[in-house]
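Me: I hope this is not a bother. Any chance you could explain this protein sequence and its structure tokens? It all follows right here:
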Amino acid sequence: MSSGAPRRAALRAAAGLGLAHLFRPSLPGAALLLRAAGIGAPLGLLGAPQAQAGAQVEEPLSHSVRSALSAAVADAAPPRPVFDRPEERAAHVQWLSRSGQRLQRYKSEAHVRTEFLEAVWYESRRAGLETELVLGLIQVESGFRKYAISSAGARGYMQVMPFWSRLIGDGDVSRLFHMQANLRFGCTILRHYLDRERGDLFMALGRYNGSRGRAPYPEAVFAARRGWVSARTS
């Protein structure tokens, strides 16, 4: 066993990110499309560049995978949440309030915070991801800056690389600065990486960042996630 393996295992355990906790058996939207395309099968691993925010690696995608990802990005649905029970709505309102307080240091206007949190809530669940995990990733990747551009050319909140617009979008890179489009791309890509890594979130986060197998980036996202979980449960 390599010297890094125990640290990776400790990080996974400390983060409390078991698949049973994060992902539901029946995944909505993007996840269902990805499962149908068989993305969970081993596809071969590519080398990763030096760690850098948003530096996903362009890799060949099969036609079925590309079609599933494209459909997941293009499939539109109302972003407003719908709840079956009053207590679920009350819990959601409470989450918006607590998370909004934490987000205030990044976004000063209340209506902007609410719109952003509603979009993250919707897009994360649509892809079968935990919302606090996605918030942690955004915090690390862009510091919640809508127009952030990394030195590698990644764009927006979730630092999506422009090549994804060509592979699974309409080729319009400017759309990556649109809030919901950026969140949908980012969540769909992370779901793709998670399925490709067979549920290993540590490795999937490294692949998202372009630092697969290295601890600093997953460790930073896990730490940021814990802050958002704390806001939810406090």
The chain has one domain: 4-40+53-233. Residues 176 and 182 are 5 Å apart (CA to CA). Residues 4-40+53-233 form a domain with the Lysozyme fold (CATH 1.10.530). The longest helix spans residues 86-103.
